[in-house]
Amino acid sequence: MNIQWDADRYTSNFSFVHQYGQGVLELLDLAPGSSVLDLGCGNGALTKALREKGYAASGMDASAELLAVARQSYPDIEFALGDATDFTLPEPVDAVFSNAVFHWIDAERQPDMLRCVHEALKPGGQFAFEFGGHGNNRRIHAALSAAFAERGYAYRMPFYFPTIGEYAGLLEAAGFRVTFAALFDRPTELVGPDGLKDWIRMFVKTPFAIVESEADRAAILDQCADMLRGELCVDGKWYADYVRLRMKAIRE
Ligand code: BEZ
Question: What number does the ligand 1 atom closest to the CA of 132 have?
C-alpha cells in the first residue's frame, strides 16, 4: 500500500469513503450467515454494515492504525492485520468484498492480490468490489503534475486506475468469471473551505517526498486550488472528480 494512514482524520473528514461503499454491498447475493471477508476494511465501518446485512463478516487491513480504530469501534468483529497481496485464510469464505482499496496497489501486484482472493474463496464464491477507475481524479492529478513541473519536480502518479477491459482481463486470467462491471462518475463533496488541499494532504503523500521545502509544498497546494477552483468548487464547496470501477466476479 502506498500510504501511511492518519486514522483520526480519515474517520472524521473522509467518512464518505465508507458511506459511498454501501452501493457495493448490494452486489452481494448471499444467504444469511454466509462468511464474508472485507479486504482493506480500514476503520471497519463497512465490515459492520456487512454484519448488519446478516453476514458473518470479518475484516483485514494492512494498517495497524486503522485496525486499532476498527477493533475499538466494533469489539465483537474479528479484524486481522494482513497484506491484500500476500494473505491466506484458515478457511475459505463465501465472498470477498472490498471498497476503495485496490487503487492503492501497484499494477504489478494486482495479479498477486487476485490470486490471494481466488484462494480465499470457496468455488462459486462471490467477489464484489469498487475502487478508482480509469480517469479517477484526472483533473486533480493533471493540476498536481503541472504545479510540480513548474517547480522542476516530476510528478509520479501513485495510483492504479484501470479500465473495465483491463481489469476484467486480470480477473479472467486469475480464474474469475466477471458478472457485473460499471465505470461511472461520482463527483464527491469534500469537507470544508480547504477541502481540496486537505484531500491532497491526506491521500497524495508519496509524490511529495521529492519536494524539497515546505514552501514548495504549500505553493503546489495553492496553485492546484487556484487552477481547479473554476472546475471543482461550486458555491464554496469543493468536489473531487471521482470515477468508480464497480465489479462483481465469481470464483470458477
Ligand atoms: C478513491 O477512492 O478513488 C481514491 C481515494 C483516495 C486517493 C485516490 C483514490
Answer: 3
Query: Does residue 11 lie within any of the structural domains?
Result: yes
Q: Which of 137, 188, 190, 245 to mutate to test the pocket of ligand 1 (most atoms within 8 A of CB)?
A: 137
Give mean pLDDT, residues 14-36: 87
Cβ < 6 A, ligand 1 pocket: 100, 103, 132, 136, 159, 203, 242
Answer yes or no: is 48 within a domain: yes
| Tens of pLDDT, residues 137-177 | 999 999 999 999 999 999 999 999 999 999 999 999 999 99
Q: What is the pLDDT of residues 68-98, one digit of tens each?
A: 999 999 999 999 999 999 999 999 999 999 9
**Ordered alpha helix ranges (H), the chain:** 7-13, 16-20, 22-25, 45-52, 64-73, 110-120, 138-150, 164-173, 195-203, 214-232
> How high is the pLDDT of residue 15?
66
How far is 152 from 217, CA to CA, in rounded Å? 13
Say what the pLDDT of residue 22 is. 85
CA 103 to ligand 1 centroid distance, Å: 7
Is 1 part of a structural domain of the chain?
no
> What is d(CA 189, CA 191) in angstroms, rounded to the nearest whole number?
7
Distance 105 CA to ligand 1 centre (A): 12
Size (the chain), residues: 252
The DSSP call for residue 146 is: H
CATH number of 221's domain: 3.40.50.150
Residue 20 is predicted with a pLDDT of 81
Res. 5: pLDDT tops 90: no
The CA-atom distances, in angstroms, between 32 and each of 62, 76, 107, 215 are 28, 18, 35, 55
Domain that holds residue 243: 7-251
